[in-house]
Design goal:
Blueprint (H helix, E strand, L loop, with lengths): L1 H15 L6 H11 L6 H22 L1 H4 L11 H32 L2 H21 L15 H16 L5 H11 L4 H27 L5 H28 L6 H17 L5
Helix pairs in contact: 1-2, 1-10, 3-9, 3-10, 5-7, 5-9, 6-8, 6-11, 7-8, 8-9
Amino acid sequence: MELLKAVFYGIVEGITEWLPISSTGHLIIFESLIPMGMSDAFMEMFRVVIQFGAILAVVVLFWEDIWPFESKSFKPIHRKFILWFKIIFATIPAVIVGLLFEDFIDKYFYNYWTVASALIIFGIAFIYVEKKNEGMDPRVTDLRRLKYKDALIIGLFQVLAAIFPGTSRSGATILGGISIGTSRTVAAEFTFFLAIPVMFGASLLKLIKFGFSFTTLEIGVLLTGCAVAFGVSLVAIKFLMSYIKKNDFKLFGWYRIVLGILVLLYHGLLR
């Protein structure tokens, strides 16, 4: 049963990691509906490391865009190194916050109230920014024209997702990109690439904190969740990139608001 539950967790993660609706928030909600019979320490690690499976989908789909060497000669490709410098630069704020406040955030912010509030607040923000930008041409339509200042601002938006579960890492960074004038495609692509070092580092830290003495069941659950998240992410990323060519993010904003209200109702906080 636990392996079957891991399949469902992987499906939820693979869909929600890339759509701007919060994978962590959905996993917390999903856990309340279909709890796993695993330890609290394992679940704290599992919620993060399962995202690493989703991140691998980015590496596979965008390998030609992110691998900084020519495949045959191993010769450095200048523009790709520049892109990685921007990615690392944008990652610094989240790394600092994660290292300094990880335990505090896990203790005080991983709850339904925070998730619901973040879903609603950022849902409203998506609708506001999209309405504000209607009819405006984006300032940055090519990822290569993204400035270091732009990358840093997007990285600061990512910090919000690191602090408040339910914000959505992809949602926060896409919103940050759109708000400073990038196209939706540029914002989404940079968000995908930004996830690679962030989630790799976060997963490694959680694994070290948990320790590497897994039971057979724990290994099976973790690998199953990651594998399913990887496969579903391949589909979700392709869907999102196709969707944003013709549509904006207001639909996701409304979804977040409705889901946030339902979470509050479910837990009796509106009574």
